[in-house]
Amino acid sequence: MLRAHGEIDAYTLGRWRRLFSAARTEAGRSGHRVIDVDDITFMSCRAIIELAEDAQRYRRSAAAIHLIRRIR
């Protein structure tokens, strides 16, 4: 499970990509990647696009990305 927190913007996008890459490697074993977005306070358009593109790649390989967040 990838737990992200804070802001994902132009300044932190490089780190976000590295975390995604590591999570992708880990997910390769199970076919699923779980991302806990509960503590993300801001997500830029570019970060959302990266997530959507990644989800498409997963779908083509019969895998899945799951976003989770607590209901408050």
TrEMBL record:
Superkingdom of origin organism: Bacteria
UniProt cross-references to InterPro entries, sorted A to Z: STAS_dom_sf
Record Gene3D superfamilies: STAS domain
Protein name (record): STAS domain-containing protein
Organism, scientific name: Nocardia mangyaensis
Taxonomic classification: Bacteria, Bacillati, Actinomycetota, Actinomycetes, Mycobacteriales
